[in-house]
Amino acid sequence: MRNLILSLLAWACTVSNVTLVVGSSGVVVLSIGGDDSASSLPLGGFVIGSAAVSLAITPWLFRLCTRRMSFLTGLGLGFLGTIICCISIVIESLALLVIGNFFFGMATGVGFYWRFTAVELVPSHWAARAVTLVVSGGCLAAFAGPESAQATKDMFSDDLEYMGVFVVTAIFGVLNFLFTMLVQFPESTNPKSNAIESSHSNEVNQGPALTSILYSSDFLLPMIISGLAWSIMAVPMSVVRVAMHQVGYSIRQSLTVIEIHFLGMYSPGFVAGPLIKQYGPTKVCAMGGALFAVSVICMLFAESEQDGNMGLWLVGLFVVGAGWNFAFTGATVWTANLYRKSPMYKEKVQAANDCLMFLFSGAWIFASSYIFEAGGSQLDGWKTMNYVVVGMLLVFFCVTGVGLQLDIAASRQAKEITNTAKDGMEDA
């Protein structure tokens, strides 16, 4: 339990930087002279950075290095992002801001492996609870990140507004470093142990080929669900503060909405684990889809500050965050079940999953501000963007439906095998 708590705190620091950077990226763009159509570019760079690190670094990093060294490498990338973003504020460079966010994304891509590491810290029957417990550490980050950004944005002169935001990312990085150093990782995650285990596995049982795993429904379905979940959640999140400002809401009001959104993303972690254990990851993903549907309805009917209140903004962003939690956590456990069957491919399966997931969602996030502008900005642009989300949600339901059908077929097959075995024993 001690290791899980430390992992939770390390994850909370990771996500605090995410909520801090993501929650303020749109207004930071405006503060350095960018326009509304560029407001989602830093977030797009962030997500593409996560994809890049999953593709180019993490497959060998977590295989050849200890878990501790791997996470510390990620923290180093985050510190580099801090430096670049601070420079971008000084010289008012949108390009450097995007590059800095790219490095933050790389750091987060490594940090997101805490959810996989949580499975390694506990017995197999605790896997779902461990993942959701660690992920629920984001509840702390839901407020720590945005409030830190708000409190420190004027730390320096008016010409350097929001530089304090990026200074705080370094503070969270230092805390993350301390928690990571205190975690006692199991010996099985040592690269030497992995090499011996891998060699033994190759000698005894080659197992299925990696390509057959990556083309299997047990990999493709949860990966697609993860990518869609991120896209459905992040597309409205990336422009919500800009949209709210355009229709009359204050910075404080939009900050409250983004905080409630982040709370929605991580608070369901306390119940998602038991639900996965009882109903299975596929059904929990379907629950996430139902929440997405509710959120889209709320967001489509959101009103300006003059015409109503921000209740629908709050509910819509909270519920879309909750839907992401169910869908993403369910898909994570689904993927973990796959590589438990072929542990020699664990790092590669994780890397492929995260890379494809972030590439897909990153492309949509890059496009979100342009979709918003193309729709006419303000409420018209907001609704246009949510119509696109409706399209993604329909695909989400189709993919989840396929997963549910496969679950039903597997359950029937298992019953038939059991009944056949019973009949054989009776005949004997």
TrEMBL record:
It holds the Pfam family MFS_1. Residues 1-23 form the signal peptide. Coiled coil: none annotated. GO terms for molecular function: transmembrane transporter activity. Keywords: Membrane, Signal, Transmembrane, Transmembrane helix. InterPro entries: MFS, MFS_trans_sf. The chain crosses the membrane at residues 39-62, 69-91, 97-114, 126-144, 164-183, 219-239, 251-272, 284-302, 314-339, 351-372, 384-406. PANTHER family: MAJOR FACILITATOR SUPERFAMILY PROTEIN (PTHR23534:SF1), MFS PERMEASE (PTHR23534). This is Major facilitator superfamily (MFS) profile domain-containing protein. The lineage of its organism: Eukaryota, Sar, Stramenopiles, Ochrophyta, Bacillariophyta.
